[in-house]
Amino acid sequence: MSEPLQGISGELKRLEESNRRRTLSLPRGIDFSSNDYLGLSRHPDLREAIVAALNETGMVGAGGSRLLRGHHPAHERLEQFAAEFFGVERALYLATGYAANQGLFSALCGRDDAVVFDEHIHASVREGVYASGAARHAARHNDPGSFEEALRRARESGARRVLIAVESVYSMDGDFAPLQELDALARAYEAVLVVDEAHATGVFGARGRGCGEGLHGPHWITLHTGGKALGVAGALICANADTIDYLINRARPFIYSTAPPPHLAAAVERALQLIDEEPWRRERVLSLAALARRRLFEQDSAARGSPIVPVILDDEARTLHVAGQLQALGFDVRAIRPPTVPDGTSRLRISIHADHGEGDIIALADALRTLVAA
Q: Hey, what domains does the chain have and what are their CATH numbers?
């Protein structure tokens, strides 16, 4: 019998030969791979919030999309609490950060519009922009001058709406967007600044509201994921009331997807409360991240850094080998390689958590330095 989907077997073989075939691997060893930066995914209060929500409704799932009976009191409570928490008019809860970004850009932009985005922007933003048909302008990574040049081109082309898309903390390098400069550019060019705070929510800002805390204005839209530092799932789009109403009516991933289960919304609300109740978690994770950088790279421990610590090894085969050696030693560190990162920048993406012990950090760093030097 011929292959029903011709070419798949051959493509899988080519991926295998180039060290790019992915497989699923269960968690094992000390977690230095996930985005559970604050260690909230195992917090007893989140389990209790889920049990209480299940007992309240008796429902395991939402039962439908938010517009077709899938909208429950837990969703409404979360969105009201999140709006107050992040200091915005409205918030909208979706099942994933990918769906939130894809829905936001595909709904707000059309062929008469333009999006200026950082060249390292997440794939979910790119998919949303591609689906929208808007003109695309890639700016050099974290380069305000390149952003301004792209904004000028967008305005000169007669774009109706112009959106600027960045991540406040970039997921593969752990570096920070120049939000103050981008905010000024958004004002100067009458653009909307869309900031994906996925890797900053709960960790950065004076009160854990993200890197945009204190900067957020009416020309901002922010996205806060529930599945990283908050330890649960889903994502919140935060914006003015008209924008949220528009997304409810136009964002296809929101309209045509079954709503997140109500108990997850309840857990995300409790996680946001814990950001205020247990500020020591963000203080500790940043302190441990500084320790990791000091042990790995002899960097100044006072330097501001995120919980994402990349160790770039360039060669894909070597990166996979070192990751496998670390896993054998009991450290769950995963290899990141193209196309997730550019060619020649394969890396180990080390993720630091508030519930790591200092001894765990030191042991990992020492083992890694030995393996890299071998």
A: 44-277 (3.40.640.10), 279-373 (3.90.1150.10)
